[in-house]
Specification:
alpha/beta; Maf protein; seven-stranded mixed sheet; 7 strands
């Protein structure tokens, strides 16, 4: 008889990541990681996402060393412009005006940590979104309808935000929402979790 896999903990309070992880059908709990999410001077978006995902996983793994902890972070960038969560309508409109007609890269990083066994796995999914050229009226209507204030780049692709896109290039459609499940499922299978 094989032992049951360790408890699974999501080091995130994001409702989007919680919904995505629940798709795998595994029981898990959620813990707030309490990590400073500010970028470091000159830090590229990919490195920032990877650093923060690992910091979140490590912060929760320090409290739950016997659990397998999943940390995740997403950083969006349009050229040299870093696009954090806007927090309010004015910032969301400004972000969308800056992205209008341009290509935006979403770096979605995941770290899987099992402190008790000294295991760490990490990966970063890149999704590139080409936005349509948007009018101010379209931006205003979208921001009012979707209120994407807690989404990197103000783009809620699983909602009305998909209508702002011209094209999405990705190896994992869940990466754009913030938790790339294809690679995460493989990492969890390797740790003994029963997934098809």
């Amino acid at each position: 008889m094989t032992a049951a896999p360790p408890a699974l903990v999501l080091a995130s309070t994001s409702p989007y990541r919680r919904e995505l992880l629940s798709r795998l059908g595994l029981p898990f709990t959620v813990q707030r990681p309490e990590v400073d999410e500010r970028g470091q001077p000159g830090e590229p978006p990919r490195e920032r996402a990877g650093r923060l995902a690992l910091a979140k996983a490590n912060a929760v793994a320090a409290r739950y060393p016997d659990a397998v902890v999943i940390g995740a972070d997403q950083v969006a960038a349009c050229g040299e412009l870093m696009l954090d969560k806007p927090g309010n309508a004015d910032a969301a409109r400004a972000q969308l005006r800056a992205q209008s007609g341009r290509s935006v890269q979403f770096h979605s990083a995941v770290a899987v940590v099992h402190a008790a066994r000294g295991r760490r796995d990490g990966f970063i999914d890149l999704t590139t979104v080409q936005l349509r050229t948007l009018t101010d009226a379209e931006i205003d209507a979208y921001v009012a309808a979707d209120q994407p204030f807690d989404c990197a780049g103000s783009l809620r692709s699983e909602g009305l935000g998909i209508s702002l896109c011209e094209r999405i290039d990705s190896q994992d459609p869940t990466g754009l929402v913030g938790l790339p499940l294809i690679r995460l499922a493989a990492a969890l299978r390797a740790l003994g979790y029963a997934l098809p």
